[in-house]
């Protein structure tokens, strides 16, 4: 039987799309069939989004993507002005990205653990498993505690997840968890530095939730912080109103997909006639046939007035394969060159700026 | 081309498990293979949960289930003391159940609409589509507005989704949207009457979100209501602490699955050694191979210390087929007969009670 | 570690649809959404096929269905005049049905074997695994040898799979492997007794293949038997020509689906203008998005002129759940009452009859 | 409404892996999670197969791969000595590869046709659809007729599919359907020139089936040709016996997967202790949970003694994305450089050679 140390020695390494020019490969896929053609069309649509300099690009993240080696892809999209806002599950942002920003790693699990054969012993060793990946649960507890510490440092009040995540970015910057200091770059840090807002509409459903529960437990009866998820929705809708042309780059489905689509309707409710998302791409393996939102087609979203029919594309592929190709295509086509950073976080905090 | 009226004339009818004794059928499936055996084992585990009278049963709902004809199944589980708490996506509770409680319906869409061929014309008519089901968007707007009205009637402050949903139940009771008054029964009403708490951890991500956005927009600068999603987590964790033996009946994955599993860890963080969920069932068609939480096995959850390995079962089936069989099995076995209602909502409001 | 005997003690038991009247349940599903509605519509179409007394019903079988507990369902369809011809993978007919007819069983495998954890030790014990089911490989070898014995007893020549399978039926009848003699009923026997032809278009790809290889090896240089798969196609096409109205009840996809659909085109090539299959149902979990035939929609088949668009239905469900409901529905509706047995095997052997 | 000519103007173009060096990209994927890591491991195993110069590589093809733009990938594997035998569905070899070798094309179908909206009008125009791809049915009929012509030219008797396909290759060579003559290269031609045997175990289930049916119909009562599918099995087993070390590169599942795996058992039945397939890779999106062979894990195959556990890898991906990466990796690593061509077709015809 392996020891904990033996099991946690082969870290996940994040793919660097800057090193792989896939433009010709993806262009070739455009003349094939099935998923390859869909993938190529999606890459082309992402390229169009970026060339349409008015378009605000919203990246949606669901599924365990950062633990899977896609962190650097997202960072590269942020640092190259290819994304203007993020809507994500909490796990990607806190348990995985912020966790790694604190200096921790995810680890490759051997094939034999993939189907659950060793889960009882993993439990004993406090190793958490995500399919074929290991996490040291003791390190994850430090991440939970760090979020509590950050919350404790804030003025009591109701905050959007974006405001909390901004504080997390500030924490990383102020504590030297930066490339400048020899540490790894992170999504939370890059977004903080670049004024790119990150929203987690179900923010208590992650490591941050443990922090807020601990915080509220300690402050019982006293002024405390709370997550105002309505404010999340309000803020993201403001961005739609201020920047009417929008495009969605969605990895996975879930709450982020629904939430980002819904701002079109929310704007309408606030009395502003908002245009549908002009561009929309989704990478997913979810089936449409169970009627759930995660796998529902973007055509279906158009019946709701959320997504325009002209430039939408579903890509049926697991994201670790498809995203490096789609993001790498757009990166190497340099479509971002003509864009000016939208710095959407500033839009939301005009006074502070 | 059909008119809106023609398209919206064949309402979805909710299956009534009380009319179909499937015990012998499901017992027969226990000796077969693949999904039928898994389904039978899941039904048996649900039966066990109910016979274990200490066990608090948490029902998790993700996917568009209520619009699909599963509303009465859930109501029957509530009214027969087979569920003690609900964790759900907002859409099931607000856009679908509360929506129908207001007197509206979902409609059968013809086969030819299923793959998106008519979405442009549906848009024109303000008909929203969920795979093979239609909704009148004008009616949905009334639902949005009703939630705003309810929020406007509340004292400014930060509330858990449970507290808001309780208000929605009160609204239905006070406005005669009850079976007693000749109207249809609803999940929100039944839960209100029976003190069964309903949590929507991503509560702004549904019709209620439109209500809260409109509310906050109108109240700018003045005291207002906010959704405190941390409080959701805190409250559900309290239930775990007060009622240590728990079982999960999960339809679909997403945030509800993760959130309900996480309370074991949250209790631990509050310094209470909590036992893992003793029983866990999930009905899903999500694939495990993309590593996302929705399709991840319950064995994987056991490595996180969230779910016990002994009585867990994944059922690979679309829910409209599997749930009537599993719920119907437990209903007709009458396992609930020995249970006392836990009335968990009272646990959370000792003073008010 | 368990012994072989311990692992092989819990036999798969075949579900008996005659015991479960699911008519009301399935009728209720007709007013729901997603797979339940599709399933109900498919059941209705199967009922229509049977009421259309001119319609020849072709049952297609792919996937390991017999080992999974669906044998009695198929036998009941045959013995109640609800199927007129079968097109199947070889495994279902030979390795599984004929195998059980010889007195052997399939066994329930424990949950812990499902994902491959014990495959190395199973290998040592000569236990073969199909997902969650065990087979004694030594018994399977006897099945292989029996097919060789049957082939050895035939006059050298090129035979269709149908002719071979008829011989297998005769073997069972003559060796007392019949219910009359206290043995279990089988598909091969019932089809033999009722003149229902069974085709396995890829007949060397199963236990029979081992028999024919051994036979041909022993007969090298001497007259021998061969499987003439062209004759299979020719014979099935003759049935289409003689009985123009046809319906397909397909469980799974693969070669049987394609083969049965193709006879429409084959008739055309023989100069007979054949009508498309008037009815078509397929139960499958295969995805359409990889372009493969198994998951391709029946609408796609209509572009090939193989399946009529009016009465076709895909059902997205694993077969062990869906087939008992669909077959049980049609059985209890007694649509077969007005039918006369088509005895298609006699059509193919007018002289012998 | 578009005309037939308008619909058939954008031909599928086959990807050329020689133009895309994906080695660094795939190596990077080896350190990620989920499908990307599986894909990288599969590529590595294919590379190992080729470096193990004793290993005979058997390529299995199921699903509509050639119509999807993967023809040139397969040709490149053949012409660079990276494959020693092929087991395929008939459609890939006859309806698609041989069809294109006759000068015909497959065409890109617009997004709007993908879900079946235009199938009725396609039918009228005699355009056949494979998901997002069009075929001119009139051209396909010429393909059918050509196979009949080839059969008519052969001496009456029972042939393996391999022997028929060799004749098809000879036909192409003798009729100038060769690159030398300015025509496109094809799998059938390349295999013919390189003595690489191609087996289609369900050979009547494709365009060739139409040819054999027409042939047998015309020859009724006279000596005729037949497809001896037992001979297919016998021949492939001979290859396993003569070249004990084998590896499987499987695209899709179905009959080819089962057939190629079964030769280990067949050898055993012929009294030759054969080793399991030493290497095995499968690219598929089929789910394991329905118990069907197509999606069954290679671990399961090891319980049957067919596939060794050490070097096996399932890759969960649609083939048009995964195969160019896996095949391209092995091609650019030049593992084939040290191999001598096995020319397995000569092994099967020692006298003719």
From TrEMBL, chains A, B, C, D:
A GO MF term: deoxyhypusine synthase activity
Record key words, sorted: Transferase
Gene Ontology CC terms, in alphabetical order: cytoplasm
EC number: 2.5.-.-
Matches recorded under InterPro entries: Deoxyhypusine_synthase (IPR002773), Deoxyhypusine_synthase-like (IPR023496), Deoxyhypusine_synthase_sf (IPR036982), DHS-like_NAD/FAD-binding_dom (IPR029035)
NCBIfam families, alphabetized: PRK02492.1
PANTHER family: DEOXYHYPUSINE SYNTHASE, DEOXYHYPUSINE SYNTHASE-LIKE PROTEIN
Family the UniProt entry places it in: Belongs to the deoxyhypusine synthase family.
Descriptive protein name: Deoxyhypusine synthase-like protein
Provenance organism: Terriglobus roseus
Lineage of the organism: Bacteria, Pseudomonadati, Acidobacteriota, Terriglobia, Terriglobales
